[in-house]
Amino acid sequence: MAEMRRGGPHGPGGPRGGFQKPKDMRKTIGRLMGYIGRSKWLLAVVAVCLVLNTVCSIGGSYMLRPLIDECIVPGDYPRLIRTLALMAVIYICAALLSYGYSRIMVHVAQTATHAIRRDLFSRMQTLPLAYFDTHTHGELMSRYTNDIDTLTEILQNGMIALISGVLTFAGVVAMMLYLSPLLFLVTVFSLGLMLAVIMTVGKRSRRYFMAQQKDLGEINGYIEEMIEGQKVIKVFNHEGKAKEGFSQRNERYRRSATSAQSFAGAMMPAMGNISHINYALTCCVGALLSIAVGLDLGALVVYLQYTRQVSQPISQVSQQVNNILAAIAGAERVFEVMDTAPEVDEGKVTLVHVSRTAGGALAEAEGRSDGWAWKKPDGTLTPLMGDVRFKDVVFSYVPEKTILHGISLYAKPGQKIAFVGSTGAGKTTITNLINRFYEIDSGLITYDGIDIRDIRKDSLRRSLGIVLQDTHLFTGTIADNIRYGKLDATDEEVRAAAKLANADTFISHLPKGYDTWITGDGGSLSQGERQLLAIARAAVADPPVLILDEATSSIDTRTERLIERGMDQLMADRTVFVIAHRLSTVRNARAIIVLEQGEIIERGDHDDLIAQGGKYYQLYTGQAELS
Q1: How far apart are CA 404 and CA 598, in angstroms?
Q2: Percent of the chain at pLDDT above 70?
Q3: Nearest Cα to 333, choosing from 93, 10, 14?
Q4: What is the dihedral of CA 164, 166, 171, 172, to 10 degrees?
Q5: Are strands 591-596 and 599-604 parallel, antiparallel or unpaired?
Q6: Are 625 and 581 in contact (CB under 8 A)?
Q7: Cβ-based neighbour number of residue 511 at 10 Å
Q8: Per DSSP, what are the bridge partners of residue 334?
Q9: 194: helix, coil or strand?
Q10: DSSP state of 69
Q11: Which of 13, 165, 237, 529 lies in disulfide reach of 525, CB 3.0 to 4.6 Å?
């Protein structure tokens, strides 16, 4: 339900959350036509079918005139049978044409939305991490669900209903004028009355529907929060308070929904009554015209049939216009994501497999090799060592608030560097800059002497292994989730990585071991078990540089000690950056960097910092606490 609150299927942010007008209709329609136009030959067939269907529908009704005037009144039974057979053929053709263009439009719509979803997902894979920091998951998911689903519905049915309604209305009006211009004056009066009702009721109901969807979004969001917080509610005995809050929101939704549905429900009865009045007036005036000016009986019957048909397109078109405008507004939201600038990657240095020749020189190799090297545009190879350096780095997420102030540090190959500091001191930010999840404002970050801005991002990130505090597991088997770190890893490599992370023991006790299926981000596993799998995922990737962002924060002390033994093996001969709240986990770090308000205030190993008696000493001895 998260998406309901911020633009999901019923939330106020989505196209169905009240009436939304598109900002640039012409541009959006043009882009949509670009997707739909890929099936232009099918669209041509649909257009022909629509026109022929309209002709058959209107022509079938007109056949009542010769049926009455030339068959029934004279009593010509042979001709009556032929006319009835012709009418049957016409209506069968209309039904087949309707079925045909409906099926074709389903194919056209699904092909178009398939391409839109594909392009949207592809663009999302290229967006910078900052974009996802500023847009909620529910907001982005609503593009795939609410917006595209609404667009699909309109492409399949809405546009056809709109075009068919316009064609039918134009054809029926033309036939009415042909049959009796005088009688058409009665119809004009009724049509004007119908349009007035539609505009009046539609305007007021739209406002109430917006209020209804807003209240629905609030009640759905409240329900989600209460379900997620059931344990807290019960601990503090707040069941009554929760029910009271729900009752208030439920009552607001009842009132707004009643008002919205009352106006919406009044539309069809009003249109029906006007149609009945129009039919009655047409009968009366038509009878007088038959007597006064000799209007034939067949023409009067056909005209009466058209009075039934002429009101349907008006109602049909009025309903579809709002839906189509809402769908176009949803399409704009989709295209807005597609138009977002992708992540900048101007790097030209790539990461390649290398092996050593008989003379000891490096040579690029295919597949498994002796190691990795940076390949520069001129073809020269630089061994990947894991030497990372920051020089006067300044960074801010937003221009008015600087997070890092002139940070300078170094991590030599094979060193373990630990970051310690309060929440918001900039520890995780530093590791995010190594990955180039964000771009620095000024300064320089080098990797083996190469400016990381010159390294292609996919190569840069391939050289880094990261274990985050917040783990994420994918739907699939345990082995698949570990193998996510290295998609071509063998079963033996997966098991070895799990043993290294001390995850093999609990995996072996699962119903199907490594083939156990997990869903819902591993909801059936404990937080500690999920983190063990994340560590195993990093281990199987076998990266030269490792980043551990509070990787053992959700693991008990006993398990943490066991993991450290495996982690020591994993960290051997690698450059490692560690962020930890438990200072006991960083004692063996080559260098411990203490951060405060985005600045380095202390640096040294454990013994040096204890001897200094500064901030680290206060934290370690309990005189100060990490916040």
Answers
A1: 4
A2: 86
A3: 14
A4: 100
A5: antiparallel
A6: no
A7: 7
A8: none
A9: helix
A10: I
A11: 529
> Does residue 373 contact residue 354 with C-beta atoms inside 8 Å?
yes
In contact, 302 and 62? CB cutoff 8 Å: yes
Measured at the alpha carbon of residue 349, what is the angle toward residues 345 and 354, in degrees to the nearest 5?
A: 140
CB within 8 Å of 447: residues ≥ 6 apart: 387, 388, 434, 455, 460, 463
- Contacts of residue 292, defined as CB under 8 A and 6 or more positions apart, other chains included, come to none
Q: Distance from CA of residue 82 to its chain's centroid? A: 58
pLDDT digits (tens, 9 = 90+) for 288-334: 888 877 778 888 888 888 888 887 787 777 777 767 777 887 788 88
Burial zone of 291 (CB within 10 Å; 0-12 exposed, 13-18 middle, 19+ buried): exposed
Higher pLDDT, 456 or 558: 456
Q: What is the pLDDT of residues 535-560, one digit of tens each?
A: 888 888 888 888 888 766 666 666 66
Residue 594 in tokens:
């203490």
Longest dimension (CA), the chain: 120
Distance CA(410)–CA(420), nearest Å, equals 16
Alpha helix positions (H), 229-355: 230-235, 239-292, 297-338
Tens digits of per-residue pLDDT, 86-108?
Answer: 999 999 999 999 999 999 999 99
What integer pLDDT is reported at residue 16 of this predicted model? 41
> Is beta strand 371-375 parallel, antiparallel or unpaired with respect to 362-364?
unpaired
The helix/strand/coil state of 382 is strand
Q: What is the mean pLDDT of the chain?
A: 81
One-letter amino acid for residue 185 of the chain: L
Q: How many residues does the chain have?
A: 627
Token representation of residue 422: 């309060």
C-alpha–C-alpha distance, residues 188 and 273, integer Å: 16
Query: How far is it, in rounded angstroms, from Cα 624 to Cα 617?
Result: 9
Q: Taking each helix axis as running N to C, give the angle between helix 181-228 and helix 239-292, from 0 to 180 degrees, rounded to the nearest 10.
A: 170
**What is the reported pTM?**
0.73
Please tell me the distance from the alpha carbon of residue 545 to that of residue 542, in angstroms, as a whole number: 9
